[in-house]
Amino acid sequence: MSASSSVPPSPSAAPSSASSSAASSAPSAASAAASAASAAESSAAPSGALHLAVALDGAGWHPAAWREPVSRPRDLFTAGYWVELVAEAERGLLDFVTFEDGLGLQSSRQDEPDDRTDQVRGRLDAVLVAARVAPLTSHIGLVPSVVATHTEPFHISKAIATLDYVSAGRAGLRVQVTRAPHEAAHFGRRTFAHARREDRDTPAGRELTAELFDGAADHIEVVRRLWDSWEDDAEIRDVATGRFVDRDKLHYIDFEGRFFSVKGPSITPRPPQGQPLVTALAHGSVPYRLLGRSTDLGFLTPRDAGHARAIVEEVRHEQAAAGRAGEPLHLFGDLVVFLDDAPAAAEARRARLDELAGAPCTSDARVFTGTPAGLADLLQELAGAGLSGFRLRPAVVGHDLPAITRGLVPELQRRGAFRTAYGAGTLRGLLGLDRPANRYSTDAAAV
Amino acid sequence: MSQHTEHSERTGKPVKQLHLAAHFPGVNNTTVWSDPAAGSHIEFSSFAHFARTAERAKFDFLFLAEGLRLREQGGRIYDLDVVGRPDTFTVLTALAAVTDRLGLTGTINSTFNEPYEVARQFASLDHLSGGRAAWNVVTSWDAFTGENFRRGGFLPQQERYSRAKEFLATATELFDSWRGDEIVADQAGGTFLRDAGAGAFVHSGQHFDIEGRFNVPRSPQGRPVVFQAGDSDEGREFAASSADAIFSRYSTLKEGQAFYRDVKGRLARYGRSHDQLLILPAATFVLGDTDEEAGELAREVRRRQVSGATAIKHLEFVWNRDLSAYDPDGPLPDIDPDPGEHTIARGRAQVRMYRDPLAIAREWRELAAANKWSIRDLVIETGNRQAFVGSPATVAATIDDFVQADASDGFILVPHLTPGGLDAFADTVVPLLQERGVFRTDYEGTTLRDHLGLSEPPAPGAGSRRAAS
């Protein structure tokens, strides 16, 4: 199964030994995560319920998903296809959907192109797919992937701010990096030495990893500063003085870093959520640091509850080290899912797809094959290890997405572990996150 | 369009069908934000209202401008006009969800973007709108805007067209890297792609040296419709060689005809025919029940567009000095303009419009003295008048005459109010144009190319995967 994520798995992902400071930081670090961690034991107050997201990618996460009769591979490049999927996710009251993306064709090989013709190839820009869906949905969060390595943070910041406007406060983004030389060649600006797979665990390869994630951290910092570069009440429309804006409430961000410098302010006013949701997927120490430093929500790939506990602890440690111990940071577990009412049916479907693909399904994330009730058991067990929610990757989106919305969701609702209606109107609100104060606010400084 | 083959009694030529588009009111003093009816220029509801009005009136397309740094004057952000706008691609794609036929034209800079990314955004917009995307290619050279980007302000002014041309050529190679028949998606047989090399490209040139595989399959229009907005000799040549339409600034008859002749005359050199490049000037308008009432309204709109503070700032473009101490209701400054190289205003096109400020200042002082005009009066009187002022019947007739006289192929209308500034035009002028038989009563096709009467770009063969020199 394709690990389309560009985040490199690394042996350093092995859980760090639990330091007492990391352990003690966990409960205080993130109220949302901490309360969710106890959700399995506590009664089902809405705040203690699980959060659920679905990751959308082509016909699904199994490479042969497009060959299932339920799939519509000819529609992958039409708006209607994506609108229907997100509408289904919204019917299931999910927190948000993510949209995969990349700056090159999909490949079965990590960081290298392939010449395969038996898998889905080609995709639409994820931010634009989200924008196309936004006016036709009303509650669900929309989280497209963007590649920090080759894009302009100024463009990304205003694009996500605008997604937040067109969705009335439901935008986020998932930041990823790429070391793939063939993707760098699409831009021609940078070349990466030591980007080959076999270099990954050499000192030079690790240095490149660190550089890519430092670049991502700078990218996020610029994107966030630009969102705050307009104070909420900067637009005054004061007819008496003829002034449209109060320019004391527009701010230069004056970012100067190793990879780029950006002056600001943004051309787009502060978005409805103030700060749209920033997320990233992480499999190792370096990306865990990015989660701790820069994000509102991290996607992790735990093998089991013990592993989940260890990596949650590592991220919490990074969060504390970044001086963010008091801030909410959601940590979601990623799982690939094959869901059927009978376990044997799910197993048979997985076997059939593996047969078509010519190889057994593997993934960076744990693969769950079974019933909605079985999955609900697993999610509750993993939540007990400190995860506040899950991002499910449907193996076959046409089959497993409805199985989530019509099977898993009612099951979790029966257990009091999932919402029965949308409450908040924004994505941050669904996740229990406040609308943050503006870092440049003169009002706040005066208090 | 072939059914409209009547001939004009006046010119004896076939009656031309005209094209109409709507420019979302922008970040300049044309837009009157102080009117009580003026709404948000950021909220999606404003864009949706504007787009739906344009589609109800069967317009060809909606047009969005772009500026990548907030304008400044005297070292501070310019605060007298509308400030701020959304991201072009994102808002256009969202508009595709609330319209069915309307073309969606975005202004995208070729200096502060990369071809691979822009090509995938336009191809995605074209897919997600069912073939309604258009790209107004603009260039920029200023280091001021470059301060917001990785690339910075590295581009010498003389290279901006060479980069823009190569940018467009490179993007075209990316669009053409998929022929359109590669995806077979044979579920039983297990073949998704017919061609293992789909999307392969190599481009090696002065500005771009890239290769690999483009990852968006061919979109409904093949490529977006391409607009060009520059007016220099180089800009006109660029348009004649590579554009489908020009967003021009000539909305008076004589200037329009001269521009039209000039640009259309350049097409033959590139083996292109007259109808392969449309000339569409921007045009402001004010409607009233009668011509007199419209004239009154037009003066009122001008006064709202040019507040006292705006008049002083406008004078500063010419004087190139801080004139904040002057009274807008008083006489013009006695001091002369500063002819120095630096410019007081940054991030806007007007900066370079006044080639001989000393002569303009002299002329303006004489005009003001002769007419007893204050600074504000002068700016109002000498500033751009609305292109069309009158009753719906007058405006419809003027627009039709203009197009039949080959001063343009239609207009990109620029209302002064957001979001309702197009409503009256749609309700009163468009039906009259339809009665005259010069504007469609319904869309005949689904893509923007259909609306504009442009042919499909040739489907690339395998030979198109070439290295450019």
TrEMBL record, chain A:
Quote one Gene Ontology molecular function term.
oxidoreductase activity, acting on paired donors, with incorporation or reduction of molecular oxygen
Q: Where is this region: Disordered?
A: 1-38
Per UniProt, where does FMN bind? 101, 194
Residue stretches making up the Luciferase-like domain:
77-353
Q: Which UniProt keywords apply?
A: Flavoprotein, FMN, Monooxygenase, Oxidoreductase
- Which superkingdom is the protein from? Bacteria
Q: Which family does it belong to?
A: Belongs to the NtaA/SnaA/DszA monooxygenase family.
* PANTHER family noted in UniProt: ALKANESULFONATE MONOOXYGENASE-RELATED (PTHR30011), C2H2 FINGER DOMAIN TRANSCRIPTION FACTOR (EUROFUNG)-RELATED (PTHR30011:SF16)
Q: What is this protein called?
A: FMNH2-utilizing oxygenase
Automatic annotation (TrEMBL), chain B:
The protein's matches in InterPro entries, at most eight in alphabetical order, are given as: Diverse_substr_monoxygenases, Luciferase-like_dom, Luciferase-like_sf, NTA_MOA
Point out the signal peptide segment: none
Where is the region Disordered? 449-469
The Luciferase-like domain sits at: 35-405
Which residues of this UniProt protein bind FMN?
107, 161, 232
> What UniProt keywords are attached to this protein's entry?
Flavoprotein, FMN, Monooxygenase, Oxidoreductase
Q: State a single Gene Ontology molecular function.
A: oxidoreductase activity, acting on paired donors, with incorporation or reduction of molecular oxygen
For this UniProt entry, which segments traverse the membrane? none
User: Which family is this protein grouped under?
Assistant: Belongs to the NtaA/SnaA/DszA monooxygenase family.
Family matches, as PANTHER family: ALKANESULFONATE MONOOXYGENASE-RELATED, C2H2 FINGER DOMAIN TRANSCRIPTION FACTOR (EUROFUNG)-RELATED
Q: What is the designated name of this protein?
A: Nitrilotriacetate monooxygenase component A
